[in-house]
Amino acid sequence: MTMFSVRNLSLRFGGVQAIADLSFEVAQGEVFAIIGPNGAGKTSVLNVITRVFDPSAGSVHFEGRDITQLARHRVVNAGIARTFQNIELFEGGTVLENLLLGRHRFGHGNFFAQWLWTPGVRAAEAASQAAVEQVIELLDLAPHRKSPVAGLPYGVRKVVELARALAARPRLLLLDEPSSGLNPEETRDLAFWIDDIQNDLGVTVIMVEHDMSLVSEAADRVLCMNLGQRLALGTPAEVQSNPAVIAAYLGA
Amino acid sequence: MRFDYDTSYRDGQALLRYGSGRAAYAVLALLLLAAPWALGKYYVGEMTYLFIMCIGSLGLMVLKGYTGQVSLGHSAFLALGAYAHAWMLGKGLPFALSIPMAMGFTALIGLVIGLPAIRVSGLYLAMVTLAFAILTEHVIGHWDAVTGGFNGMSVANPVVFGFDLSGLRPFYYLCLGLLTLVLLGLVNLMRSQTGRAFRGVRDSEAAAYGLGIWVSGYKVLAFVISAGVSGLAGALLAHHVRFLTPEGFGLFLALELVLMVTIGGLGSLRGAIFGAVLIGMLPVFISRIKPMLPEQVSKQFGLEIFVFGLILVLFVLFEPKGINGRWIKLKTFFQTFPLYRKDLFKRGKTYMKSERYK
User: Fold this and answer.
1) Is A183 in the same domain as A136?
2) Which of A128, A189, A203, B132 is the 20 to 30 A CA-CA neighbour of B316?
3) B357 to chain A: which residues are within 8 Å by CB?
4) What ipTM score was computed for the predicted complex, to two decimals?
5) Separation of CA A153 from chain center
6) How many domains does chain A fold into?
7) Would you say residue B254 has pLDDT above 70?
8) Can you tell me the distance from the alpha carbon of B62 to that of B67, in angstroms, rounded to the nearest whole number?
9) CA distance A195 to chain B (A)
């Protein structure tokens, strides 16, 4: 069943065509990888979906709804959360505070209730903490719970960002190069976690990724892009053996 | 050494979790309540002034410390609060009504300034707010009919429900009480969703958008809260100085406020109090040590400004997290004794900081 689709999407910055007439569909519960050489427009696709950029043409549909014109801060309310290629954590806070911000969309009392710290606000905060603890448990973040994120190792920071996106309880999760900067061991952990996210939480995943071992391990289908266009689409094995894909990567 | 041992999610919510903290704050409260009877008249007045500056500093801290928006124009919000309050008192409005109305007025001005101002950030925002401060000072100076212009405007005594609180001690308690209320209110706001969203907007706008935080809305909200609290500080300052002139709310006051929040430690309400106390006491301290200095130094014009600048430079160089940062290090030293390491608070290297998303 199609849960998410991109239809005839184009994005143009002046003379640069970042995305050119791109279409694809993602099924419910799928892990969908987007690969391609540098500058292929992979991250631009994620940025159009999360409304960082306005597309020049085309539309994005999620759960039967056109989300092309949604306000940028309402995307997560529709059920889509994301991580960033270069970690975008809230550096001033602890791991717990970062994850609690992931729960922002659930609301914790109105302004005046917060001001007076009413029992209702206290209960909402405690409920959010309980919800966040589930994510902490899933991703083994317990030892770092109260550490300031600024001092954590790179690999852990990457996991905290994933955890924060999960704390928002998305139905579609967008991962922008989740394995960049991770060592092989951490990448293997990540593959297991993506599996857990897909099977236990039932979250659909779209990930932009360079590490082909992770892609073939975790992804159900792969889209290969080059120069903003669709080059190939299929299972990891099909795409890897596609002559056009090999040509794009090796320049042959 | 002490570890937090939580048995329920509410354990972490207590503001003063341990007996030692409660005892320390109880002692502080007793000292502050007893102070007007123990200190001389001059010092009671000075402490009242410190309380007012604490409120002003808290107001700016919400904006600069929590959402990272620099304002060089907060003297204008104090001025607007002071003049609005004095004008309404002059028209016969009771104190208890005039104070919230003055706060509401400055908050409204904060909204009007905030709406266009959030489109710029950093140095440009500093310029916009600076222009606003200069403009406000000029308007106040030339609108004789309402403000009395450069001749000044006298302020009626604060009379709350029939009690005249203009005396030294009653006004001290009034300011202390209002400071406590403001502080508690802001503590609550900053530890709940609003405060978290403010910090989120400050640290990464891209991630804040992605998590459903309406970035521009929260930026304007910070302006409104900050302006309202500053308006209260201004209204109290009006009673403290008893006679308002535009020069009293010049750029020097705005700079003092910026110094308070920066030296106190950005992003913490405790820092705002620390900074206000330090900067607020500095003029008294300088006038005290002046007789001890050689004549060539003590007779120099602008000694105060020089000392302000020197302190700022020293803090930026040696303790960028301000007095509050120093305080936390000291506390950690004793709490984790003997495990404290010198580089415990050194930040890990930040790799690949992206400037691409705005």
Assistant:
1) no
2) B132
3) 52, 84, 88
4) 0.92
5) 21
6) 2
7) yes
8) 7
9) 23
Structure tokens at A87: 């970690």
Q: Give me B345's structure tokens.
A: 């608070």
User: Are A187 and A123 in a shared domain?
Assistant: no
Check: CB of residue B182 under 8 Å from CB of residue B117. no
- pLDDT at residue A77, rounded to an integer: 94
Secondary structure letter of residue A194 according to DSSP: H
List of residues 6+ apart from A196 with CB closer than 8 A:
A138
For residue A175, the cross-strand partners are A207
Q: Cβ separation of A91 and B214 shorter than 8 Å? A: no
Enclosing domain of residue A113:
90-168
- What is the CA A180 to chain-centroid distance, rounded? 14
Please name each of the domains of chain B with its CATH number: 39-282 (1.10.3470)
Alpha-helical regions (H) of chain B: 19-38, 41-60, 67, 74-90, 95-117, 123-142, 144-147, 168-191, 193-203, 205-210, 215-241, 251-264, 269-289, 295-298, 303-318, 322-335
Please check whether residues A252 and A174 belong to one and the same domain. yes
Residues A6 and A59 in one domain: yes
Residue B6: count other Cβ atoms within 10 Å of its Cβ. 11
Residues in chain A: 252
Determine how β-strand B153-154 pairs with β-strand A65-66: unpaired
Q: What is the DSSP letter of B118?
A: T
- The one-character DSSP state at B205 is H
Chain B interface, Cβ < 8 Å to A: 4, 8-10, 12-13, 185, 188-189, 191-194, 196-197, 199-200, 202-204, 206-215, 267, 346-348, 350-354, 356-357
Q: How far apart are the first and last CA of chain B?
A: 43
CA distances from A71 to A46, A63, A90 (A): 15, 17, 22
pLDDT digits (tens, 9 = 90+) for A100-146: 999 999 989 999 999 999 999 999 999 999 999 999 999 999 999 98
To the question of pTM greater than 0.90 for the whole model, the response is yes
**Where is A16: in which H helix or E strand?**
strand A16-27
